[in-house]
């Protein structure tokens, strides 16, 4: 007869937190892939785009509008932090993006939080 070892409440809570963190990470990765695909559709060299991510000292403030593509210093920073591209949208999609950023649990809100934690 084998005795089944029971888990303590803190151990169970830790397992649940770990599972939730893993799920959130998976959601962020899926959101990044989705937003990156949308960003790839939008040409960087034409039109006006709005950066909707968190303000980054020396790079861009939140809701900065770029005309004719992203400036070189933003592109260089985006190479190290590709999430910036997922939070940069054409002006005609700005209202939709802002609404999604303000809605907890959306892909855009998750990406915003992830980028902010990286900075």
What's this, in brief?
This protein is mainly alpha-helical. Helices cover 55% and strands 9% of the residues.
Description of the molecule:
The protein has helices spanning 9-41, 72-80, 83-86, 94-101, 107-118; strands at residues 48-51, 64-67, 88-90. The chain is mostly helical and 119 residues long. Helix 1 (9-41) packs across helix 5. Strands 2-1-3 form a 3-stranded antiparallel sheet.
Order of helices and strands: HEEHHEHH
- Strand percentage lies at 5-15%
Radius of gyration: 19 Å
Could you tell me the number of beta strands? Answer: 3
C-alpha termini separation:
54 Å
Number of helical regions: 5
From the helix content, strand content and strand pairing, which structural class follows?
A: mainly alpha
Report strand order across the widest sheet.
2-1-3
What's the arrangement of secondary structure elements?
Layout (H helix, E strand, L loop, with lengths): L8 H33 L6 E4 L12 E4 L4 H9 L2 H4 L1 E3 L3 H8 L5 H12 L1
Antiparallel strand pairs: 1-2, 1-3
Helix pairs in contact: 1-5
């Amino acid at each position: 007869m084998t005795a089944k070892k029971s888990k303590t409440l803190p151990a169970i809570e830790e397992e649940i937190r770990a599972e939730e963190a893993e799920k959130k990470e998976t959601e962020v990765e899926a959101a990044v892939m989705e937003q990156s695909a949308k960003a790839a559709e939008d040409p960087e060299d034409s039109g006006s785009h709005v950066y909707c991510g968190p303000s980054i000292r020396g790079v861009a403030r939140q809701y900065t509008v770029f005309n004719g593509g992203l400036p070189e210093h933003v592109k260089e920073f985006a190479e190290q932090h590709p999430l910036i591209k997922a939070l940069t949208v054409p002006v005609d999609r700005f209202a939709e993006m802002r609404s999604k950023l303000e809605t907890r649990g959306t892909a855009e809100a998750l990406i915003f939080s992830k980028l902010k934690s990286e900075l």
